[in-house]
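Chapter summary example: a protein plus GDP-perosamine.
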Amino acid sequence: MNHEHVLVLGAGGHAKVVIELLRASGRVVGAIIDADPRPRELLGVPVVGGDERLEALRREGFAQAFVAVGDNHLRQKIARQVQAAGYRLVNALSPAAVLSPSAQVGVGVALMAGAVVNAEARIGDLAIVNTGARIDHDCVLGEACHAGPGAALAGGVEVGPLAFLGVGACVIPQIRIGAAAIVGAGACVTRDILPRTVAVGAPARAIRTLAAEETLR
Ligand code: JB2
């Protein structure tokens, strides 16, 4: 192991995609830690235990990490622990994505194959821009939000922290989607969505507000 190797947190489907994104950009994934600490391999990477190993692995030389857990709230919580343990969060940016040179990208971000991020968009820390999602000019994605596969955001859309847009959702220009809101698969958002609101359909309608305990971990 050398200090350039990346430690991945999480060993589910999202971690598989992230491992391949990291490899595609030339990084070596050295180990995984997971809530299920049983020894095994994921795409040839050993699972070496649970999060209690964070500090020991840092002392052994791991300095870079990626939190590959799809749940927005959990990803943010784990990332804070990882940073507090002294790791630097890296990005997993697909070479098959199109990222504008004028876009800003935080840390711990996954940008998957076929995704497009256009001029002066800002992608917050820990965001996921999933396969084929399109984020047009001047959009702002908040911390730990997730634009699902094929989601399409027109220009100037603001997505609050921890919000989730399901597969194929679309959003017209200049809309604001509140923190921790959930937009259902295939929804078409034509009006602002309040924080912690679940909205579905085309045009999207709010069907429920999430209780605080549903959005905090
Ligand atoms: O506190 C934790 C923790 N809690 C759950 N620490 C660590 N290190 N790992 C944790 N996990 C692990 O996250 C679970 O043990 C499990 O291995 C993983 C979550 O895997 P799952 O397959 O449930 O979901 P995912 O996050 O890999 O993928 C979701 O999000 C993606 C973006 C799914 O919805 C996918 O379909 C989606 N593409």
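Key point: The longest strand covers residues 29-33.
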